[in-house]
Specification:
Blueprint (H helix, E strand, L loop, with lengths): L1 H20 L6 H15 L7 E6 L16 E3 L8 E8 L5 E18 L14 E7 L11 H4 L3 E2 L14 E2 L6 E7 L4 E8 L8 E6 L5 E8 L2 E5 L1
Parallel strand pairs: 8-12
Antiparallel strand pairs: 1-4, 2-3, 3-4, 4-5, 6-7, 8-9, 9-10, 10-11, 11-12
Length: 230
Amino acid sequence: MHQIKLYSITLYSIVLFSLTSHSTTWDKAYLQAFAKEYLEEKLLPPVGGKISISIANIDPRIKIKPCQQNLTANIPENTTSRNVNVKISCADSTPWKIYLPARIEKTFPVIIATTTIEKGATLSRDNISIQYLANNRVRGKKFTNITAILGSKSEKRIGKGRAINTKNVCLVCKGDSVTITAKSPSFTIKTQGIALTSGNLNKQIKVKNTHSGRVIRSKVTAINQVLIHL
């Protein structure tokens, strides 16, 4: 009888130990990393851009219970918002869940002024660079190809950290000397002119041919370069 009782106690202890040994205690740092990894896998970065995710700290007063099951994560609400709540769940015999606030920011490459650029100054690698910014921080049509605007001029004073856009610089500025390329299906000729208006890539501007004195409309193709089709 004593042997049977001892065997029962031993078997119960083994089962209890087995259940306890498979129960895992998750620390708060792990839960934050788990939520971030879930979002990184679920959310795709925008084309040509990046996505950054930050998870809020968990209240130190909250105690995280052990869990014998694998944790699961999901987003109960619409993910188009920049602020979401990630639900971490434990489907244990005593289930629990916790919501972790997360901030999602999509950024895009933008050329910015690395120093204050005065009106009429020439843009160079000494005063501009590429940074990733959120769309709501950029006004106007932005530039993303730094090589394409090297040598262009600022049309107004641009503060340090401000984005370079089509409203504050010009590839061809009013009064600039320009090369006019005239193209037809059979030939191409070049001549010099003066820009009568300012413009950026693919924009139509007025130029004056310095040889003929004729005023024509032309398309901006590069810095101080315009094109007309004959």
